[in-house]
Amino acid sequence: MLTFDANPVLAEASEIATELRRVLRALAAEQASVAPQPVAPAVVVPTETGSTSATVRALRAERTALEERLADVLRVQANREAIDQALTERAGTLRLAVAERKAELQARSRAAAADGIVAHAVSQGRGLTAGERTRVARLRSESSQSAGLTTAADITSAARRDGALTALGTLRLREAREQLRSGLLMTEQMRGIIAEAGPAIMRGDPVLLLGETGGAKTALAEHLSRTTLGREPELVSGYGDITAAQLIGSHELRAVEGATVSVFTPGPLLRAMAEGRPVILDEVNAMPAEFLKRLNRILQLRPGDVLGVQEDAGREVRIAPGFAIIATANEQTPHRYRGLDRLSAELVNRFGAHSYRVHYPDTGTAFEAFPVENGLLAAAAIVDRDGELPPEWSADALNRVARAAFISQQVFAGAVSGGFGEYVSTEREIDGRPGLEESVIAPRTLVAIVQKVSASAGAVSLDRALTRFVEGVMHREDRRVLALILEGQGFRLG
Questions:
Q1: Closest by Cα among 292, 278, 174 to 228
Q2: Half-sphere exposure (CA, 13 Å, Cβ side) for 368?
């Protein structure tokens, strides 16, 4: 991609090349969708409908037109020389970005190697040797050292530096896109929790993830299960009419050889214990009180221990290695999450030092600063595999919606200082309530909104998607505050 818009020839060549890539992808997808499928010889199935054939022909014509436009530009000797020079400069810029990216990944690899040494010792139930402690300290020291682009010797101009930073940002976006598609954007907060909670889970210690709604607690729990233990978790949601028997197990009547017998069927908790898999108790404080009382005892068990199952006449289940409990909770407060029980001090204490508060992205960022993590999240949700935004999106629109989400998250979480206080009424501040009671543009909401716009191919504007979101908010005062936040970022609702 050429990024020298000051030169109209280069700008035109860049525009043509970008659009040509989109057309080629569309054509490949269209042709793949009409590829003939293997069928029995006697069955005749048309491989292409009239409308699909017309679509393919239209895309091919568009491709030809773009190729001819590019050829016209290149026929002029001066244009070809300018493009060759720009491509040479671009190659040097990309080398800088790739070198910096390689250094970043190497630093991350060293940090992961240090964590791996610790995790390996934990999995064997032992401490680190002196040699291992030395290697861990060295790896972590090396991982924190990075020269950075600003000290690179071959940055010969501000333009090359800016180009390298832009290319580096694109590489980071491509990685963020893949992370988000896998379920979890790896922010510094997430990396820190994973590094700290991982050894605990490998020991079989229970972990509690606390935080506001939509902050990726469940996604983090799933990531810990799959990457730290390499096991698919049992996921149990606390909402609904779930009972303790459904979690632990119950007797069912079955027909066996003509007779009706009562058979005990283990629930997800017992299955996880027997099979050596983690269990995620999602929204644990919405689970029945009788189960939470049993959970106090269960949280003290570790792999190798034995649990007597009351529901199965005291039958003993030996807990297999790989079992661990990861619980998530929205801590109940007077102003929200009504219907949830406050976690008892006794229950919380069972998690020991393994309780982690999962904050919204950019928590601690000043009101006037750009919310980098929300911006990365919004962009990662819609960029293509090359890290480029769809044509209907502008960087300005993406920045504004990321900032609106950030402000709403901090107001929802209770921020009242700096510019956040503009969205908290005097009455709410006196009562100690946050500026938003029930609704927020949480990270998952932000992703859903920007993806709705992108999936519409321009049919739904960002203003319209945000309007629909606000209209769906049930709390009248929340609607007013959200409208103020969005209008303050230049969006037109209604």
A1: 278
A2: 1
What's the rounded Cα separation, in Å, for the pair 255 and 261? Answer: 6
The torsion angles phi and psi of 273, rounded to 5 degrees, stand at -65, -45
The C-alpha atoms of residue 165 and residue 149 are separated, in whole angstroms, by 8
pLDDT reported for residue 233:
95
426-453 per-position pLDDT tens digit:
888 777 788 898 899 999 999 999 999 9
User: Residue 235 — φ and ψ, nearest 5°?
Assistant: -110, 125
Most confident of 36-40, 331-335, 400-404: 400-404
Out of 4-8, 268-272, 429-433, give the one with best mean pLDDT: 268-272
- Convert the pLDDT of each residue in 103-153 to its tens digit: 888 888 898 899 889 888 877 778 899 999 999 999 989 887 755 555 555
| Angstrom distance (rounded) from CA 79 to CA 75 | 8
> Average pLDDT, stretch 449-466?
94
CB 73 within 8 A of CB 13: yes
Residue 425, pLDDT score? 86
